[in-house]
Amino acid sequence: MKNRYVLIIITSAMLGVFIGMTNREYERKKDIYISKDESIKKEIYIANKDIKKLNKEKQNIEEELEKLKVKYEDEKNIKKVENLKSRLSYTDITNSGIVINIDALNEEAGNIANIIDYNKILINIINELKINGAKLISINGERLNQYSAIVLAGNHININSVPIAQPYEIKVIGDYNKLYKYINKKNNYLTNIETNYPVKVEFKVDKNITLQKMNVPNKLEYIKGE
Fold first, then answer.
1. Is residue 101 a part of any domain in this protein?
2. Which of 1, 52, 113, 218 has the highest count of CB atoms within 10 angstroms of its CB?
3. What sections of the protein cross the membrane (predicted)?
């Protein structure tokens, strides 16, 4: 009986110890689970905060991109306008190119305006130059564009309704290498006119040619966009 009593006490004590250990383990695991839950909540909070931050940065980048797009379009349009103004001779321009001088061969040749006009020498030279790299051209200071007229008026030639007289100085800006090759060809229009007409042609390359804008109102009064 005594032994049974002792066994019960020992068993009860062991059970108490086991229950105590189980409770402590449960509390420990509970703390762990609570800790993990809080950790997850914290991670979610941080993640949400980062997402908000990234969304804000994305918004800022998109706004900056939109500004750059507008700026790029503005710059592109400005460039188009500037190129158009340049082609229409509305602006002064300085760049590399060539200078061609055409004059009477001698005093006996006299006024060569009729020869120049009848044989369309200036027009032919301009077309040749355009084929060979010319972008912008002036004759005796008169800028040429697609609306310019070169006509004989009495004993002189008019360009843009402005009278010019010999010698005719043609300034050309464009592809420097192509223009240089052109004037150094032995068989070109410049060589032919010296052979066939009482005129002399001189030319030089120049890396600092200035073409003045047109001095008369351009015929194109309004420019419509696309």
1. yes
2. 113
3. 6-23
Residues 62 and 149 in one domain: no
Q: Long-range contacts of range 115-121, CB-CB < 8 Å, 24 or more positions apart? A: 115/197, 115/198, 115/199, 116/157, 116/166, 116/168, 116/199, 117/150, 117/151, 117/152, 117/157, 118/152, 119/193, 119/197, 121/193, 121/197, 121/199
Per the structure, the count of domains in the chain is 2
Q: Are 104 and 204 within one domain?
A: yes
With 70 as the cut, is the pLDDT of residue 182 above it?
yes
Q: pLDDT (tens digit, 9 = 90+) per residue, 19-74?
A: 555 555 555 555 555 555 566 666 666 666 766 766 676 677 667 767 766 666 66
Please indicate, yes or no, whether residues 120 and 180 belong to a single structural domain of this protein.
yes
SS3 165: coil
Same domain for 102 and 25, yes or no, is: no
Q: What is the mean pLDDT of the chain?
A: 75
Distance CA 18, CA 104 (A): 127
Domain containing 16: what range? 1-87
Structure tokens at 64: 């900056």
pLDDT bin (cut points 50, 70, 90) of residue 80 is low
More confident call, 225 vs 189:
189
Instruction: Provide the angle, in degrees to the nearest 10, between the axes of the packed helices 176-183 and 121-131.
Output: 130
